[in-house]
Design goal:
Rossmann fold, six-stranded mixed β-sheet, 38% helix, globular
């Protein structure tokens, strides 16, 4: 009888331990939603079959954002664009852009130098160029990041895709989607502790989620 009782207790303890190691419960909002879906998007039905490379201009940021922060966001966005496999992202540094346009950043809505597109095509051998602007930026919790973007065919000047959305972590659907992105893409997510809430405290990780959500709206090939 004592042996049987000990076995029952051991089974209960074992179950409790393994249950406690689960990274996120099945009812967690990062798995069940609701999730934020970007809406202010327009573009062609399909990207041209000839579009293979995209020249990615440095993010045009607000004057209050340090350039180091912009560079980290540039890197996160480039990684997310490459993850979509829509095209190969070719980064254009701020120094290179300054040589081509006399400016270290260009907004998607401003008038461009008349020969910039041809210069970019020659320099990068890309088929399209991506402009990205920061419209809202809050690097401290609650995080917020607004991005406006435009993908332009370098041969024709046609806008292939345009995007303008605000991602505000105070909205549960945004927070859920950001945590889900972390759980789906971070190696640390496979550990015994749920670290997905860190995405809501780290501007670079949050920027990676925003980039993923933004590029998910690109037209198919």
């Amino acid at each position: 009888m004592i042996w049987k009782l000990s076995g029952v207790i051991a089974a209960v303890v074992s179950t409790a331990i393994f249950s406690g190691c689960e990274t996120t419960p099945r009812t967690d909002a990062a798995r069940t939603g609701p999730f934020f879906t970007p809406t202010n998007v327009r573009g062609v039905d399909r990207l041209p079959a000839t579009l293979r490379r995209v020249a990615m201009l440095p993010t045009a940021g607000l004057s209050s954002i340090p350039e180091e922060s912009l560079t980290r966001l540039d890197q996160a966005l480039m990684a997310e664009l490459n993850r979509t496999a829509r095209a190969e992202a070719v980064p254009v540094s701020r120094d290179v852009l300054a040589r081509l346009s006399n400016s270290r950043q260009l907004e998607s809505t401003e008038a461009l130098p008349h020969d910039l597109l041809s210069k970019l095509k020659t320099y990068t051998q890309a088929d399209a160029v991506l402009f990205t602007d920061i419209t809202t930026y809050s690097p401290y919790p609650p995080l917020a990041l607004g991005l406006r973007a435009r993908l332009v065919d370098l041969a024709t000047g046609e806008t292939l895709w345009a995007f303008d959305n605000l991602f505000d972590a105070t909205h549960p659907a945004v927070a859920n989607a950001a945590r889900r992105h972390y759980l789906n893409t971070s190696p640390a997510a496979s550990g015994s502790a749920d670290l997905s809430s860190t995405v809501l405290q780290n501007p670079t990780r949050f920027g990676a989620y925003v980039g993923s959500a933004m590029f998910s709206t690109l037209p198919p090939r």
